[in-house]
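Intended use. Records like the one below are meant for learning the mapping from a protein sequence to its folded structure. Do not use them to infer anything beyond what is encoded.
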Amino acid sequence: MSNSDYNYTSEATVARGKAIYQQLKDEVELNHNGKFLVIDIETEYYEIDIRGTAAITRLLAKHPNAVIYMVRIGHRTAYKLGFRSTYGTLTNKVEKKTSNN
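Structure written out for the chain above:
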């Protein structure tokens, strides 16, 4: 079955990806901790790279119709999202510039 035959929900993709990662975990965490693991959940083919985009590109070159799950090896999430607490500082700078004009 290919992804053209079946549309995966996000939940199904994540569940399948996590299950495959658990099978590979001991092997990949030993030598590739911190790198990105990109898995085609249909074929279980995977690529590993320090850059997630490079791993995705290689995987898609070999499996153009891949249904992709990506994880950062040894981490809970692939990326951290957030901001630094500089907002007040930046706001003050803008206000100072505005008041000087």
